[in-house]
């Protein structure tokens, strides 16, 4: 007689496992659908081109950044350096220019 309660428990656990597996399978299917939707959305977003006006504006900003770097890399004019080598009374010296250049690099890297 002891085998009957054991058999019942095994059957009950098997049914519980079957229900759990079924629920997990449904969840996996749902997640796969969601993933496919997200991939489609990302693909569509990546394919959208920037308006021509924005591309031109970004190219202009890039050119301005290059020009600024060239100016900062060049020898500072005498009017800005004044009598001291650390900068003029306004606080614009080579060290501040180099700091500004590094800040531009950080902004550009973040973009």
The radius of gyration is 33 Å
Largest sheet: none
Q: How would you sum up the global shape?
A: elongated
User: Strand-and-helix sequence, N→C?
Assistant: HHHH
Strand content: under 5%
Number of strands: 0
Structural write-up:
It contains 4 helices and no strands. It has 111 residues and is mainly α. The protein folds into 2 domains: 1-48; 52-110, no CATH class. Helix 2 packs antiparallel against helix 4.
Question: Keywords for this structure?
Answer:
0% strand; elongated; 2 domains; 111 residues
In short:
It is elongated and about 95 Å long. It is built from four helices and no strands. The chain has 111 residues and is mainly α.
Could you give the topology of this structure?
Layout: H1 3-47, H2 52-73, H3 78-81, H4 94-110
Helix pairs in contact: 2-4
């Amino acid at each position: 007689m002891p085998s009957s309660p054991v058999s019942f428990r095994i059957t009950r656990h098997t049914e519980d496992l079957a229900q759990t597996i079924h629920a997990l399978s449904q969840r996996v299917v749902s997640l796969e659908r969601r993933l496919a939707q997200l991939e489609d959305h990302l693909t569509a977003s990546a394919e959208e081109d920037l308006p021509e006006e924005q591309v031109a504006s970004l190219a202009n900003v890039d050119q301005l950044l290059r020009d600024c770097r060239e100016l900062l890399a060049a020898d500072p004019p005498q009017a800005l350096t004044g009598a001291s080598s650390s900068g003029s009374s306004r606080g614009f010296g080579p060290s501040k220019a180099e700091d500004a250049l590094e800040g531009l690099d950080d902004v550009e890297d973040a973009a």
